[in-house]
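Quick question, first post here. What does this chain look like in 3D?
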Amino acid sequence: MTSENLPIKVLIIDDDEEDFFLTSQYIKKIRGKEFIIDWCYRYKDALDAILEVKYDIYFIDYYLGARTGLELMKEALKQNCEQPLILLTGMGNQKIDLEAMQAGAYDYLVKLELNSEKIERCIRYSMERATALKILRTNERKFRSIFERSKDAVFLTDEFLVFKDLNDITVSMLGYSREELMQKNLLHFFAKPQQAGEIARILKLEGNVEDIEVELINRNNEILQSVLSLSMEMDAGDNFYVQGIIHDISNLKRAEKATLQAEKLGAANRLVRALAHEVRNPLNNINLSVEQLAQESLAETGSVYMDIISRNSKRINDLITELLLSSSLPPETVREKKSLQHILDESISTIIDRITLKKVSWKVIYPNEPAYIMADTMKLQIAFTNIIINAIEAMNENKGELYISVTSQNGHHLVSIKDNGHGISKETLPHLFEPYFTFKRNGLGLGLATTLNIIQSHKASIDVQTGIDQGSNFILKFERA
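> Answer (accepted):
Ran it through. C-alpha cells below.
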C-alpha cells in the first residue's frame, strides 16, 4: 500500500466530548479518504502524543481546562514538532487567530462554521504543506551538513559583506569567535586594502567574483594565501546577500616555493660541482709544477713568484672546497631534543660583539615553557646566526631595532627574527635564498642558501615578510618535539 492510500491518523484534542464527536463526524464524511480518529482531553497526554509523532495531523481546541491549546501548540513547536497543528476556536477571534498563525499553526477553524468541506480542504492543504516543509527541512539539513563539513571556509554575508552565517572552518581560519565574526566585514581581513577595494568593485559591477587569489590576514597576523569566490544572490524577500568560499592555498604555495627553491639549489649545486671538477684538474697540474720547480735552484726573484703562485693556488683550492661544502646537502645527523630558546641564546652570544659595535637595540621574547624541537644544534646555530647577521647589516647604526621571539601554535613553534632595516624589494625577494645571490660587495651569496639548506633538513619552513624601508621579518616554522 502506497503512502497515498494509507489511512490518515487524526488526533482531536478537546476537553469537550460533544465537540470531539461533532468534529469527528465531519471528518468521517469526507469522501475518498480513510481516517483513524482518536480523542485526547488531557494537556500532558496530548503533548506526549504530539512529541511521539503518533498521528499525521492534530486538531487542537483553544480551551483545554486550565491551559490553552495555543500554549500546547507553542510548546510542541518549541520541541521541533513537524506535523500539522490546527487550532479550533469557539468563535472567530482575530487576535487569537493571528497569534496562532504567528506561533506556527498550519490553520485555524471556527467550530460554529465547521463542515466536511472546510475540514477536507484544511486537511489537504495542511498535509501538502507539511510534506513540502519536510522536504525543505531535509534539504536544509543536507546542505547544512555540507556547509559545516566543508574543508573550505563557507559563509554568507549581507550585500555590504558583513558576515551573517559561517562554518567552523571560517572561524578557525580567521582566528575569531563566531560571535566576533558576525560583527565584522570580510574586507577587514584583506592584507592589501587596494585588493579589498577591487574585490568590492568587481562584485558590485558583475555580481560575482570567481577564483581570485587574495592575501588575507588572520587574528594572529598570519598571511593566508587564498582563492576567493563570491556570488551576489537574492532571498525570498528580495533582499540581497552574498555567498562566499575561501580556499586556503597557503600550504600549496609554501610547497611550490620550497620545490622551486630546491630546484634552483640543485641546479646551482650541479653547476658548482662541474666547475670544481674542471678547475681542479688544471689547478693540480699547476701545483705539481710548482712543487717540481721548488726543488730546483731558482733565483731570488723566481722564488718570490713561486710563492705567489703557490699561495693563490691554495686560495683557489680553498674557495672550491668552500663552494662544494656549501652546495652539498647537510649530512644526516642524529638530532636531539633541544629548546629553541637555548639555541637562539647560543647563536646571539656568538655575534653579540657585532650587535654592540653596530649599536643595535635588541630584545628577545620567549614563552615561559621551553619550545622543544628535534635539532642539530650546531647547524641550526649557523642558520640563526646567518639571519641575525643579515638583519644587523641591514640596519643603520644607532637606529637599529632587532626583535627575536618564539611562539607556539597548532603543533608548531615559530621563530621570528625581525629588524627595522632597509627591507627587500619585491623583485629581489624571489632570489633571496639562491646561491651566489648577494648585495654585499665582497660576499659569495652562500649564507642564506646554506641557511635554507639547514632549515629544510630540519623539515622546517622559512617565510619572509618585508618591503622597501619596512624592515624584514624572517619567520621559521618548526614541528614540536
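The chain has a mean pLDDT of 84.
The radius of gyration is 39 Å.
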